[in-house]
Amino acid sequence: MTRTNTLGACGLALTGILIQSGCDKAAEPAGKAGPAQGKTRTSVVAAVIRKILPAKPFILPEGTPLAVRTATALSTNTHVAGQTFTGHLAQPLLLDGREIAPRGAEVEGTIVESDKGGRVKGQAMLAVQLTRLHAAGGQVVQISTNSASRLARATKKEDAAKIGIGGGVGAAIGAVAGGGRGAAIGAAAGAGAGTGVVLATRGKPAVIGSETLLTFVLRAPATVAADSK
Fold first, then answer.
1. How many CB atoms lie within 10 A of CB 140?
2. Is 2 exposed, middle or buried, given 0-12, 13-18 or 19+ CB atoms closer than 10 A?
3. Model confidence over 12-23: pLDDT tens digits?
4. Phi-psi category of residue 96: left, alpha or beta, with phi > 0 → left and psi -120 to 50 → alpha
5. Which end of the chain has fewer beta carbons closer than 10 Å to its terminal beta carbon, N or C?
């Protein structure tokens, strides 16, 4: 509805109310009209205006925090950048005392980075962002948030253990074959083999488990229509 049409509709509605008010007044016995009837007419006028005029939308400001629990597990072993995921609000989203979305409301997001990490160095990393919020009343709101990320668990101790085991096995074989000198040669060869295993194996994946609590922040204001309440 355009502004001109809206104002016209308001004018017609108010005219009808005033005409009806005049008729009611004319039909009343003298001295019977009271303040209660005037208040009733005022409330009717206000209700008509609220119904005709579009309600002002709610604006979620930049920096609004959203606490979210993931619905399923995400991993660099099974997910790639561009895939979507879902979660639910861990607490109600409020604005000036109004509930914009209840606890448990669904949110949608996208995996923005899924790096398995290099075989030589580097840990796997997984990063996600939110893109949509299911507000009260069933409205779906487009949102833009920061990224929440997780790094894989470091494996330096495990790598050292693999190299150590390789060196120990090599030393044992060398000792049997050639005594002390053979043990030294075997240890070096075994350690080299252990290092090769480490370099040929990727580290642990980065994982965001199911029901993980993540905190996001709006990077830009988001508009929620008032009729979603």
1. 12
2. exposed
3. 555 555 555 555
4. left
5. N
